[in-house]
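pipeline/complex-builder :: batch 7 item 3
reading input block
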Amino acid sequence: MTNPQVLILIGSDSDLPVMEEAEKVLKEFGVACEMRISSAHRTPKLTAALTAGAADRGIKVIIAGAGMAAHLAGVVAAETTLPVIGVPTGGGALNGVDALYAMVQMPGGVPVATMAIGKAGAKNAGIFAVQLLALSDSGLAGKLVAYRERMAAEVIARDEKLQTERAS
Amino acid sequence: MTNPQVLILIGSDSDLPVMEEAEKVLKEFGVACEMRISSAHRTPKLTAALTAGAADRGIKVIIAGAGMAAHLAGVVAAETTLPVIGVPTGGGALNGVDALYAMVQMPGGVPVATMAIGKAGAKNAGIFAVQLLALSDSGLAGKLVAYRERMAAEVIARDEKLQTERAS
Amino acid sequence: MTNPQVLILIGSDSDLPVMEEAEKVLKEFGVACEMRISSAHRTPKLTAALTAGAADRGIKVIIAGAGMAAHLAGVVAAETTLPVIGVPTGGGALNGVDALYAMVQMPGGVPVATMAIGKAGAKNAGIFAVQLLALSDSGLAGKLVAYRERMAAEVIARDEKLQTERAS
Amino acid sequence: MTNPQVLILIGSDSDLPVMEEAEKVLKEFGVACEMRISSAHRTPKLTAALTAGAADRGIKVIIAGAGMAAHLAGVVAAETTLPVIGVPTGGGALNGVDALYAMVQMPGGVPVATMAIGKAGAKNAGIFAVQLLALSDSGLAGKLVAYRERMAAEVIARDEKLQTERAS
Amino acid sequence: MTNPQVLILIGSDSDLPVMEEAEKVLKEFGVACEMRISSAHRTPKLTAALTAGAADRGIKVIIAGAGMAAHLAGVVAAETTLPVIGVPTGGGALNGVDALYAMVQMPGGVPVATMAIGKAGAKNAGIFAVQLLALSDSGLAGKLVAYRERMAAEVIARDEKLQTERAS
Amino acid sequence: MTNPQVLILIGSDSDLPVMEEAEKVLKEFGVACEMRISSAHRTPKLTAALTAGAADRGIKVIIAGAGMAAHLAGVVAAETTLPVIGVPTGGGALNGVDALYAMVQMPGGVPVATMAIGKAGAKNAGIFAVQLLALSDSGLAGKLVAYRERMAAEVIARDEKLQTERAS
Amino acid sequence: MTNPQVLILIGSDSDLPVMEEAEKVLKEFGVACEMRISSAHRTPKLTAALTAGAADRGIKVIIAGAGMAAHLAGVVAAETTLPVIGVPTGGGALNGVDALYAMVQMPGGVPVATMAIGKAGAKNAGIFAVQLLALSDSGLAGKLVAYRERMAAEVIARDEKLQTERAS
Amino acid sequence: MTNPQVLILIGSDSDLPVMEEAEKVLKEFGVACEMRISSAHRTPKLTAALTAGAADRGIKVIIAGAGMAAHLAGVVAAETTLPVIGVPTGGGALNGVDALYAMVQMPGGVPVATMAIGKAGAKNAGIFAVQLLALSDSGLAGKLVAYRERMAAEVIARDEKLQTERAS
C-alpha cells in the first residue's frame, strides 16, 4: 500500500461529510491520503504529534477542516513547515464566517491557505493539494490539465443541452 | 514577593497597550499577576508549557489577549482546566471581529470566557478575574463592592457637574 | 436537598431548549443549580431581586441566556459582583449576532463572560461555571480532568473507528 | 422655569457630544428637556428611579443614548410605559453596529424606537420627540411644518448655488 | 365606525403576515387602525396621497413595514410630520439586515422610529403606537400598565411552572 | 449650449466630492450633464418633478448618489422608466454598507443599477452612462474603445516602470 | 428568427432557476435574448469569445449571473464596452453577500451594473435591459410605461381586496 | 541572473506597498521572484498571457494581490494549473472584506489559496510560496525551520525583555 502524501485532519466527525469532498478528489487523482480525526482543543497532544510526525511519514501537504472558532489549521501550521490548507467547514449560527475569519486571518509568519466555506472549499483543498504535488510530479500535472479540460467540456455540454432545449 | 494568581498571556508585544488595562485593574485590587508574551503559532511549545504548569505555580485564572485569527485563548484552554478569559485585542482590517469570532465561538467542551474587543474588554477581563478569585476571598469581595460604589459615585458626580453646567 | 451554587436565568421559556445544555453539564458534574425564568424587560424587578439575593442564597455563579437584544446578562451583572456568564441563545433574523454583540460588548467596569451562540455556548457556560467552582473544590477539579480525558478518548475512539472503516 | 417634557439619558459623558444634537433640536423647537447621566450598568438603581419617576415629573418622552452593548434604552423601556427613543451613539471597535443591534432588536412587548447611529440619529431623536409632542400641541405641529419648509429651502438654495457655480 | 388613528402601510401583501402582529396589538388595545397596501416604488403617487392626507383623516401615527431596500417608511416620513414607525419585515437573501439599514439609517431631519426585524418588531410597532396615543389618552395609559402587568404575570407563571416541573 | 443627456442627482452637497467623479468622466467623453441637488426626504416634490420631467428635457440616463439609508435612487426609479444608476456615496458609521444595501436590494419591478461604494463607483456610474448612450452613438462607442486602450496602456506603462526599477 | 439583443450568461446551470426570471421578463417585452452557460473559471476562453463577439452578433446588453466569488460579470465587462448587468445569484454559506461584493465593488474603469441578490435581481436585470434598449426604441418605451401601470394596478387591486376583507 | 520561481501579480501599483511584503520574504529566503502589474479588468489579455506562459518560463507559484471586487487571483487560477495564492490587499469602504470574499469563495474546481487581508497576508503568501517550493528543495526546507526558530527566539526575547521591565 502506498504511503499517504496528504493528511486530512478534522476536529470532529461532524466535519466528515464536508471533508470527504477533498478525499474524493485526491482519490480521483490517485493521490494516497489519510483522513484523521483529532481536535485542536480536545486532543491537542495527538494533533501536535500527528502534525510534527507528518513529514517523516512522507506527508507533503496537510488539509485541516474545522468549523466555528476553527483553530485546527492554525494549530497544525504552528507545528510544521509543510503547507497547510484550511477549510472552514461551515454550519453553526454564523454559517462559517466565524471559521473563515478564524482560519484566514493568520498573523504574519504562519500561513494557512484558506479555501471557500463548505463542500466547494473542501473539493478545492483536494485540487490545490494536487497542484502542489504536481510541481514535482509531471504525471499529476498532466492529470490536472485533463481535469480542467473535462470541466470545460462539461460546461460546454451543458450549454449545448440548454441551446437545444431553448431552440425546441 | 507574592506568587501571581493571574497569568496574562499575549501573543505579541503589539497587544501590550491593550492588555495593560487588565494588569492595571489587577494591581488596583492588589492581585498579583504576571504578563507573559508567548504566541500560539510562533512558540506553541512555550505556550503549552506556560499553561500546563500554571496551576502548579499557583495560577488560578489565565487571561489571553490576541488579535486577528486569535487562537491563543483556545489553545491555552485546551491545555488547562483553569478558567481562561479571552480578550480580542482588535485592530487589523476587520477591527477585531475576526478575533472576537475566533475566541467566542469555541466548540462545546472547552470554554473561553470572552470579553469585549479592545481596552474595555481587557479592563473587564481583569475585573472578571477578581470576581472569580473573590469567590473564595472575602477581602476581594469587599473590594469589588467598593469598586462598584466608586464607579456609581463617579457617574453621579458627572451627572451633578452636568446639571450645574446646564443650570448656569 | 443541596443549595444551588449556580443560578441559570433565562428571559423566556423559548430559551429553555438551548439553556438545558448548561443544566445538563452541571448535573453531570454534580453541581446543584436552579433554572429560573425572569426577563430583563418584562420582569425587571424580579430579575433584580433574584440577582441581588443570589449571593445570600449561596449562589456563586450566574449564567444568563437570552436572544435578540440580549440585555439579561448585563442587567444581572449590574446587580451583583458574582461572576456572570452570558449565552447568546441565537435564533431570530440575525441568528444570534445581535445577542452576541449585546452581551460581549459590555463597557468597562461590568464584565459578562460571553460564550458561543446557541447550544455549544450553553454547554460551555456549564463547564466554565464548574471551572470557577473547581478553584476551591478539588473534587470538581478532579472531575474536570476526567471530563477532558473522556472527551479526548471519544475523539480517539472516533478516529480509530474511521481508520477501521477506511481500511476495510 | 418650564418643567422638562423630554428626558435625555446618557450612560456616560463620552456620549454627550453626540446626544447634544438632540438637545439642540429640542431647544430650537422650544421644548424643555433635561439631560441626565445615569448608566444601566454602573448606576442601575438611579436609572430605574429617574425612569420610574419621569411621568410624574411631567416627562412625556425619554431619549436614551448609549454605545457598545447599549442596554440603557431597553432598561429604561422596561421601567416605564412612556415612549422611549434609542440612539446608538457609535464609536468603538464595531462602529456602533453593536449598539444598533442591542437597541433595535428588542423582543416583543417592550419597544425602543431606534434612530440612526451617531449624530444624525441624535438629531432625529430630538425631531421625533417633537413629532410625538406635536400630536397634542398644534403650536409644535406648526413649527414642524415650518422646519420642513426651511430644510427644503436650504436644499433648494444649495442647488441654486451649485447651478450658478456650474454655469459660470 | 371609529375613524382610524393608526395607518399601517405595507408595500406588498407578502408583508401582511408580519404586519398583522401590529394590527393585532392595536385591536387588543381598542385602537382603530387601517391596513393599506401601497408601494414606495410601484405606486409612489398613491403612497404620497395616503400619507399627505393622513393627518386630515384623523390619523396620528403611521406604521410602515417593508423588506429588502425598504424605502417605504422613509418615503412616508418625507411626506408628513406625523410620527412614522418602521418595521423591517425581514426575509430575502440578507434576512432583513438590508431593510433594517435602509430604515434606521435615515439622515438628519426626517426620522423613522425603527423596530426589530420581523414579527417582534411589528408587535412592538403596535405597542409603541399605543404609547404615543396614550400621551393624551389616560385610558390607553392605564391599559398599557395593565398590559405590562399581564406580561410580567405570564413570565412569573412560566417560571412557577418550570419550578414545579424541576421539583417533581 | 447642448442639452444635458445625463442628470446627476445628489441629496446633499456633502455627496458632491464623490459624485464629481461621475461628472468628470462625462465631461471627458463630451457628454453634457447636469448636477442637481434634491433630496428624497427633504424635497420629495422637487425630486419627483426633476425626475418625471427628465425625459422631456432630453435626459436619457439618471445617476443618483446618496449615503446612509440611501433612498434617492429608488425614489427616482419609481418616477421614471429611464435607466437609473445608483452610487452609494459611503461614509457614516457603516461606511456605506447601509447605502449599498438600501440601493442594490430593490424589489422586483423597479431596478437601480448599483455601482461600488464611493469614488470608484461614481466614476463607473459615469462610464456606464456613456456605455448606455454609446448604444446609439457610434462616436461614443469609439471613444469607449479608446478609453479602454488608454487604461490598458497606463497599466502597461506602470508595469514597465516597475520592471525598470526592479532591474536597476 | 430575430437576432438576440440581450445575452444572458451564467457560469453554471445551477444559476438557471434564478436567471430565468430575466429571460421571462425579456420575453414578456418581446426582446429576443439568448441564455448561454459559460464559466469565468472553467471556460475562460469561451467566455471571452462569447463576450468579445457579442457586439458583432447584434447583442446590445449582457446580463451575467453568478454566485459565490462571482467573477463572471467583471470578466465579461473587461472584454467588451457593451453595458454589463450583474446578478448575484445567491445561495451558499454566505447567502449571496460574497457574490454581491464580488460584483458591485468593481474598481474604477470597468463598471458592472449590479442588481439585488437572487430572483428579484434577475427580474430587475431583465427590466433594466429593456430600459436601456428603450432609449432608442419608442415601442419598448411605451411598453415600459404600460408595465409600470400594470404593476401599480396590481398593487391597487390587492389593496382593494384587503380593504374588502377587513371591512367584512 | 536566476529565473524567477514565483510570479507576484498586482492589478495596480496602489497594491505595491502591501505586496512588497511578499517580495521581501522571498528575497530573504533567496527565492527569485518577479513582481508584475497587470489588471484582470484593464489588461485581461496581458494577464492571461503572463499566466499562461508562466509555467514555461519556470514559474512554479503565482501570488496575486488585489483589492475591492478582487478577481485577479481567480482569473489567473482559471488560466493555469500552477498553485495560485491570493492576497486581499484591503482598503476601500469595506476594508478588504469585499476582496476577501471575492477571492476565498471560489467555486469548486479552481482553487485560490487565500491569505489574510493586507500586509500580514502578503507576508504569509511569500512564506507559503517558500513552503511549496521547499517540498522539492531541502535547502529551502532547512531555511524554513531556521526561520521558525528565529521567530520563536524573537518572541522569547521580547518576553524576557518584558519580564525584566516588569521586575525592575
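note: Residues 138-167 of chain D form the longest helix (30 residues).
queue -> next item
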